Write the structure tokens for this entry.
Amino acid sequence: MITKEQIAVDLLKIHAVFLRPNEPFTWASGIKSPIYCDNRLTLSDVSVRQDVEQGLAETIQREYPDVEILMGTSTAGIAHAAITATLLNLPMGYVRGGAKDHGRQNQIEGKLLPGQKVVIVEDLISTAGSCIEVAQVLRQAGAEVLGIVSIFTYGMQKSLDRLHEAGLTNHSLSNLDTLVEVAAAEGYIADSDKQRLIRFRNNPSDESWMN
């Protein structure tokens, strides 16, 4: 079974996750962040990709055994939905960020039948906004959304509250708490930085974690 610790090791090894508590990144919102995550890099490393897709498949089988189709988020979730669907012998599709302005003007790509039980495949959960929008589109099309699987989550309270309000559950392969412990053990960060990262997670708008 793929563990949260193994995925954390994988993400750190290929620099899909950078931890820089002393040289923070700046998000588009202007928030200073000690972490940057680019899970698209998991597709380029064969062994890490195998861990991720096996982990997603195991999670779906365990948490959503009644699933009938996988739907990826555009664009980062599409490849993972396709590979995992192949492992599980399931159909898949994906949801665009908006409807096309030509052709059939689809927002949902792939064949989705009313009443089908869907699991959404996402790469990263930060504020959870994108996957909640995808769930709304699928529900409007008549699908039964069982929940979400993702590679990594920051575990921010805002995302937890928004998912609860939307009636959605998310199961991530790894999370910030696990990553912080692994990163300290592997020497990526100092042990004293662990609480700084958790303080950021608890309130990203409060920059006191930088002091």
Notes: The first strand starts at residue 17 and ends at 19. The CA atoms of residues 72 and 79 lie 8 Å apart. The two ends are 39 Å apart (CA to CA). The chain has a mean pLDDT of 93.
